[in-house]
Amino acid sequence: MKLITAVIKPFKLEDVKNALEAFGIHGLTVSEASGYGRQHGHTEVYRGAEYTVDLVPKVRVEILVDDNDADSVIDVVIKSAQTGKIGDGKVWATPVDAVARVRTGERGTDAL
Amino acid sequence: MPEIDAGNTAWVIVATALVFFMTPGLALFYGGMVRAKTVLNMMMMSFGAIGIVSVLWMLYGYSMVFGNDVGGGLLGNPTEFFALNGLVDDVSGGLPTLIFVAFQCTFAVITTALISGALADRVKFGAWLLFCGVWATIVYFPVAHWVFAFDGEDTVGGWIANRLGAIDFAGGTAVHINAGAAALAAVIVLGPRIGFGKTPFRPHNLPMVMTGAAILWFGWFGFNAGSALAADGLAALAFVNTIAATAVAMLAWLLVERIRDGHSTSLGAASGIVAGLVAITPSCASVNVIGAMIIGLVAGVLCALAVGLKYKFKYDDSLDVVGVHMVGGIVGTVLIGFLATSEVIEDTNGLFYGGGWELLGIQITAAVATIVFSFVVTAIIVLVIDKTIGFRVSEEDELKGVDITDLAESAYEYTDIPVGGAKSAIHVKGNQSDKEEVKA
User: Fold this and answer.
1) What is the mean pLDDT of residues B179-198?
2) Which of A38, A88, B219, B421 has the fewest Cβ atoms within 10 angstroms?
3) Residues in chain A with pLDDT < 50?
4) What is the rounded distance in angstroms from the CA atom of residue A37 to the CA atom of residue B336?
5) CA-wise closest residue to A48 among B408, B47, B393, B43
6) Which domain holds residue A103?
7) Whole-model pTM?
8) Which chain B residues have a beta carbon less than 8 Å from that of A44?
9) Residue B11 lies in a domain
């Protein structure tokens, strides 16, 4: 099994959620995050003064999937989160050793 | 020179401050109802209306409403009192005319601000300011002249107040029906928010909504009892009716929710309060306390049902300006035709007090005339602004939230991590990300 983690633009969450739902993903976890990629170091003006700000608000989406689905799910995220502008985010997969559904105790892919 | 009556003047000065405070109260009422990402924009729409409409009022608005009629009872002469020309020492009805100018200014401001509730989350602040100025000038000022300008000894006023002879004590037609019909036209032209009907747009701060409702009720005593323009029995009657109708309307709205949804809500209480206040506005000086309670009951029930219509007919009247102000305004204006009683208003009886159908017909005519004029002219204004400078923000900005994209601010900064505004980059000179974008 794999854990797919996507860090995306907050306003793209709805699109990503819908695309994952359409693909057949039934569960995910969402949290607010902040960070930067290559766009870091932009300046903002507030009340006449300039500030350098590197962190920008992001949303982190985490999805547990079967090994075979990992690449497709990454594609789904790319397609639905992409604006083509800088700051669209990242998506990656990490191996997962064990998964259990708390309610039933099911293990492995049955718990997905 | 006529004498100034100090007692009456003192009350009208206080009442003016009360009504003025209603618009910041409205900002809280509306602001709490939207999502956290648009609360500042929502509140700024009320504050913006205070700015623009007050200035126009002093320049030519007062003159367009209370200047001598230019023909047909449709409009006052805009140049007669331009920039309050000649009013500094003027005294009328025992009041310095300038305090009457200020009192009526607060009505123009809140009427315009009321419309903003329908346009939550999706319009440009600049376009809204332009709308406020144009709408006040070609919709509110004429309608206020129709309703509020009474004939003088050698001056002619508006057609609804004088020729038609409708009863509208504090502005059921000119203020509430007017704002509600305008809101309906605006949302039909501009269309719904992204996600309307699919996403529940839950209020982000209900205590703020309740605080706003409390300020509105408090300020409304100035609105209704102040409209007596004297510290007298009529003001006291309006005051009592403003309590009675509003209390009943709140209870009625809560009861409808309890029966229909299984639970009453605080948002329902706040909405019921405003529905009651709206309905008693035109009628507070022509009905007795039982009449006021009946008006509150009908307004509470009908408005609670009316706010559901937007989902059926698919118009995104975001914060229920149509359901509360237009419907509540119609209830109050029309019920005068049934419930007016000579016990409180000289020689006038509604249908239930043996007065016949005539008054009812007059009241309905006043309501319909206001709806038609306001709806048609507002639709044209909104269409023109949308086709020229654009009224709505882009889809992306709407999803990010107009606070950060339009004002470069967010209402609640709860994190210590130094996070920048999602879109504040747009307001920046020499932004690095633009350069990188070119490279990429």
Assistant:
1) 96
2) A38
3) none
4) 65
5) B408
6) 2-111
7) 0.91
8) 408, 420-421, 424-425, 427-428
9) yes
